[in-house]
Amino acid sequence: MQMLAAFGVEKTFSNGVVQVEALKSIDVEAASGEFLMVTGPSGSGKSTLLAILSGLLKPTRGHVQVMGRDLDTLSEKAIDDLRLHQFGFIFQGFHLLPFLSALEQVAMLPERQGLSKAAARTCAREALEEVGLGRRLHSLPEEMSGGEKQRVAIARALAKRPQIIFADEPTSALDSINGGHVADQLKLAALRRGATVVCVTHDARLMTRATRIVQMEDGRLRAAATPQNHHLNINPR
């Protein structure tokens, strides 16, 4: 089932008389249960594409369909509701609040979705156990390693039971061991939950976890491959 698709998406940023074409006629889609990896050099348009696919940024031209709905026909409130109830977000900076425990961090979003405090904590506990942090429920961010903090961020996204997970450079600040663990958790999210994972990264370690890889350069999609039969340069300059 197709969960996400972009058709002829372009994005131009203007700064006075200077215009920069960040995206040029992008067509891409992702199905339920797919782990789509978007790679390419810095400045190639990866993060801009992720922002447009998730409704955080509007395209200059073209349109995006999410779960059969055109984003450009939805109100801001409807898009906010999609992000709250159907999307999960994972960023490289973790975005954890320093004064909240892992359990409290993860329970926040299920509560915002309307669950009782007790039900939200149950969802949070299950998500943290799923990513191997069952013993870290009451730990503060300062008491955790970088890999553990990123796994809290993954659990926070999973606790919402999203249909689509957007990950922006989720392993860039992690060593090879922790980066591999995080990559495995993203793959499991797709396999176990049937979620669609769209991951923007420079990290070649994610290649073997992805079900499909697309490469961007100068605002265009240049190539696509599967990990089993890839022909891409996935160690971008």
Q: If classified by CATH, what would the architecture of the largest domain be? A: 3-Layer(aba) Sandwich
**Amount of helix:** 25-40%
Tally of individual helices: 6
Largest sheet: spatial strand order: 6-7-8-3-9-10
Describe, in short, the structure shown.
With 237 residues, this protein is an alpha/beta fold.
Give the SSE map.
Layout: E1 2-15, E2 18-31, E3 35-39, H1 46-53, E4 61-66, E5 69-70, H2 76-85, E6 87-91, H3 102-112, H4 117-130, H5 146-159, E7 164-168, H6 176-193, E8 196-200, E9 212-217, E10 220-225
Parallel strand pairs: 3-8, 3-9, 6-7, 7-8
Antiparallel strand pairs: 1-2, 1-4, 4-5, 9-10
Your description of this structure?
The structure is a single chain. By secondary structure, the chain is α/β, with parallel strands linked by helices. The chain folds into two domains: 1-86 and 163-237, 3-Layer(aba) Sandwich (Rossmann fold), CATH 3.40.50.300; 96-161, no CATH class. The chain has helices at 46-53, 76-85, 102-112, 117-130, 146-159, 176-193; strands at 2-15, 18-31, 35-39, 61-66, 69-70, 87-91, 164-168, 196-200, 212-217, 220-225. The model is unreliable at 229-237 (pLDDT under 50).
